Amino acid sequence: DSGVTQTPKHLITATGQRVTLRCSPRSGDLSVYWYQQSLDQGLQFLIQYYNGEERAKGNILERFSAQQFPDLHSELNLSSLELGDSALYFCASSVVEYPYEQYFGPGTRLTVT
Amino acid sequence: AQKVTQAQTEISVVEKEDVTLDCVYETRDTTYYLFWYKQPPSGELVFLIRRNSFDEQNEISGRYSWNFQKSTSSFNFTITASQVVDSAVYFCALLDSNYQLIWGAGTKLIIKP
After folding, report:
1. Largest CA-CA distance found in chain B, in angstroms, rounded
2. Residues of A near B (CB-CB distance < 8 A)?
3. In B, which residues are within 8 Å of A96 by CB distance?
4. pLDDT, tens digit (0-9, with 9 covering 90-100), for B60-81
């Protein structure tokens, strides 16, 4: 158990809908990262927050957004969902932003039908 | 461009055999960090090791060992006396100066009893 929690574990929704994925980092970790893992794209970095501020952006679509709250938990919002958004979404956390190892949550499996 | 290549898509060995997973990276950064993660069938990503670019010492942790060679831009991972529990997908990743983890495609390791 990495200490990073993610909810929900599974999510099934329809195209065009909006969902929110939630992540709580390990105690003491200030940095949160979001990743998408799909069969065709592999593991891709989406976005990073450090102590409430956005620090880096990767291959995140405009339909997706995230934020980190004062209590350091983070939410990833996915809107206007398409079939291709079906994937495993991971949250990770680290003590500081760079260059320490990231500890991953169990992931949220999103299925868009 | 930053890139991580894991040329071995799948490796299958019999228990107790030694196995080496290859990782080759490309980066223009002089300071960078390399990681290995394990993804067992349960799906979570488990941190194994972090290595920085100015430390070329090999690392051994139990049955696991890592060989980092800057001259060939490789960071290979060897499991000695493999066990069925080692069956998983193993990812090599590069952390660049933009705070992004760039992932290899992963190597699926199957250990047969």
Report:
1. 43
2. 2, 33, 35, 42-45, 48, 55-56, 58, 88, 90, 92, 97-107, 109
3. none
4. 889 999 999 999 999 999 999 9
